[in-house]
Amino acid sequence: MERVFKSGNEAAAYAAKQINYHLMGYYPITPSTQVAENIDLMVSEGVCDTVLIAAEGEHSAAGVCYGASAGGGRVINATSANGLLYALEQLPVQSGTRLPMVMNVACRAVSGPLSIKGDHSDIMYALNCGWIILFANNAMEVYDFNIIALRLAEKVRLPVIVAYDGFFTSHQKRVIDVLEDDKVRKFVGEYKAHVTALDPDKPVTIGSYMNEPDLMNNKYQLNLAMEEGAEELKALFREYADLSGRSYMPVEGYCCEDAEVILFILGSSFDTACEAVDRLRSRGKKVGVVCSHCLRPCFGKELGDVVRNAKVIVAADRQDSYGAHGGNMSMELKAILKDNEINAKVITRVYGLGGLELYPEDAEKMLMSAFEGNVKPFEYYGVYRGRTGEDKREYFESVTEKNALKEYTGNIKNSTLMPRRLQAGHGACPGCGIPINVNLLLKGIEGNVVLLFHTGCGMVVTTSYPKTAFTVNYVHNLFQNGAATLSGLVEMCHERIRRGELADRDITFIMVSGDGGLDIGLGSALGAAFRNHHMIIFEYDNGGYMNTGYQLSYSTPMGAKSATSHVGKDRFGKSFFHKDNPQIFAAAGIPYVATCAESNPGDFIRKAAKAQHYAKERGLAYLKAISACPLNWNDNPRYERSVIDAAVKCCYHPLYEVEESVTRLNYDPDAKGERIAVGDWFKMMGRTKHLTLDKYSHILEKVQNDVDRRWERLKAMSESKIL
C-alpha cells in the first residue's frame, strides 16, 4: 500500500495505469479531461501501454470504445455533461450487445445556458441505458470503484460508469492509499472476452437486427445481468475489503438507526452532510444522512432498511426532472418507500445546480426544514431574488447599418473607421489572437451582422453573464452543431422576409469557430457547406482545444506537445499531421474559401469583404486565420505577430483563396525570397521547440516534407486556370 496525493481524475487515471487498459477512446471536455491527460502522460513516461485515440467528438469516442470492446480488449473512456449526452446514443448499443468497458463521468451541469461547474443533470440521462452506474463520494472511492468496476463489468458482461462530482471530486486533491500494481492486476484478473470480432476461426455477428420476441428476450437478459450485477457488486465489495481494508456497501448511512429525519444525498455532499448531522445531534436532533454508491442497479431494499425508522426523508437532488416536482432520485426514493411499505414522508430540495456550493449550514437547514409545520414538499434551495426592474444599460453603442462603414473600397485606412462589433470588454488572455482576428474579420464586413459563436475560448471570455462584449446580435450553441444552428437562423430570416413578417435589413450571418471546433463540428459545418446557405464560417485556428487546457486537436502541428500529446521517453508529441480545413471546404464546392493572417491585415480585410459579397450573392464562404494562443503555444505575447508571420513565410499557413473553385496564391514567399524553414517557426514556440533538437530531427523532416508537398500542390493549382 502506498499513500499518494491525488484528485479524483488523477485517481481514475492511476487505477487505469495499474490495470493497463488496451485502449482509451476520448474527447476532451471539462471537468473529465484530466483522466485522458494523465493516462497520456503515463504512456509517454513508459509506465503503461494504453493506446489513446483522440476522436473528433464524444459520439465518435464512444464508437471507438465500442469497436475496441468488440475486439476483445479492455477499454476505458471519460466524459462529462453534454459530452455524455452527445455519446448517449451509443450507450444502449454497448449494453445491448453486452460488451464490457469502464467510463468515468465527472458530473457537470448540462447546457444551456453554458456552465462547466458540477451538478448531476448529466448522469441522470444515463439511468435507462443499461449501464451499471457506481457513484463515488471522493477521490479514494473513485480509485477503488474504478478497479471494482472493471471486474464487475467483465463478470456480468455489462459496461460500467464510475460517476463523481465535477470539480468537487474530479479536481480536489486528497491523500489516498493505492494498492501495488500486481495486487490490482491480480484482483481484476486476466480478461477472456465472451466474443470477439477478431477470431477468423470463430466468426460472430455482433449487433444483429432483431424483431419483437427476440428483442424482448435480449432486454430481459440485460435485466437479468443487471440483477446479477447487484449480487456480484456486494460480493466484490467484500472481496475488495479483504484486499484493501476499505469496506463499502451499495447504500451508506450515517446515524440513521434512530433518526426521525434523514437527508438523502449523493456524491461529495455526503461528507458535508455528515458534519451537519453531527452538529444537529449535539443539539439533540435525531437526524441522519444516507447516500447510494450504486444508481444502477437500484438497491431499493438496502436503502429501505437504512431509512425504515425515519418519519421524514429530505431528498436532496442536484438536478431536476422539470415538471415532476422532484429530481430523479426523489422519484425513485418515493417508489422504493412504497415498495418497502415505509410510511416516511418525502420532501424534495433541488440544490447545488451549476456547482453552487453546499456548506454544512445548508445541510442543517435542509434537515431542520423537516421539523417545521406546513413544510413545502418541493422547493429549490439556494435560489435568490434578482434585481427588480430590468437593467437596460448599454455599455457600448450598438453597431448596425447606420454606423457600420458602407461602400468599403478595399482601402485599409478606411477599415480603421469601422466600429467594433467585439469590444475590448472581454476576458481573453494577453496576446490572445481571437479578438484580434475577429475584429480584423469584422473590419471588412459592412452593415448588419449576426454572430454565432460555438463553445470555446472566444465564447467564454466575451459573454460572462450578465454582460456581453458584443455590440451586435449574438447566439451561442455547442461545438458540434454551430453551423447547423446558424443555417437554421439564416433560413428563418429569409422565410420571414418572404412572408412579409420581417423587414429586409440585409444581415450578414457569421459563425465563428475555433479551439478545435471544426473537429467535433466538421460534420455540421460541411452539411451547411453542401446546402450552401448564405453565411460565413470563420475559423480562428489556434491549433488545439484551448478552452479545456490545450489538448491536441486535428489542427495541432505534428510533433507539438499538448496535454494529450506529451513528450517523454516513448513519445515525441502529436503523432499525425495537421488537418487542412481550407482544402476540405474547397472540395465541398462552396463559392469562396480563403486563408488569412493578422501579419497581413490588408489581405485579411480584403478577403473578409469578398467573403461577405459571396455570402450575400452566392452562398457559403469559409475563411481561416491562424490564431495565436501564447499561453499554450508557450511564446512571448509581445512578438505574436512575428510568430504568425513566420507561420505564413514557412508555408505552414499559406495565404491563398479558392474563388469559384479556382485557386490563387495571394503571397508567394519563394518568389519574394522570404521563405523560411518550418523549424524556424517551430523554435519560436515552446510547444514545438523540442523538435529542433537532433533526437527529433526525423519528425521535423516529416513535417517539413508534408508542408512542402502541400505548398507545391498549391502552387501547381494556382498556376492552373481550372484548379
Please explain how this structure is put together.
- This protein has 723 residues and is α/β, with parallel strands linked by helices.
- It has 24 helices and 25 strands.
- It has an eight-stranded mixed β-sheet with strand order 17-16-18-19-23-22-24-25, with helices on both faces. A seven-stranded mixed β-sheet has the order 3-2-4-5-7-6-12, sandwiched between helices.
- Helix 10 packs across helix 11 (328-339), helix 14 (433-443) crosses helix 20 and helix 16 (482-498) runs parallel beside helix 18 (522-531).
- The termini are far apart.
- 51% of the residues are buried.
- The mean pLDDT is 94.
Shape: globular
The largest β sheet comes out as:
8 strands, mixed
Strand order of the largest sheet: 17-16-18-19-23-22-24-25
The number of helical runs is 24
Which value, in Å, is the CA radius of gyration?
28 Å
Mean pLDDT: 94
What level of helicity do the residues show?
25-40%
E-strand count: 25
The end-to-end span amounts to: 66 Å
What fraction strand? 15-25%
**Unreliable runs:** none
How does the helix and strand content classify structurally? alpha/beta
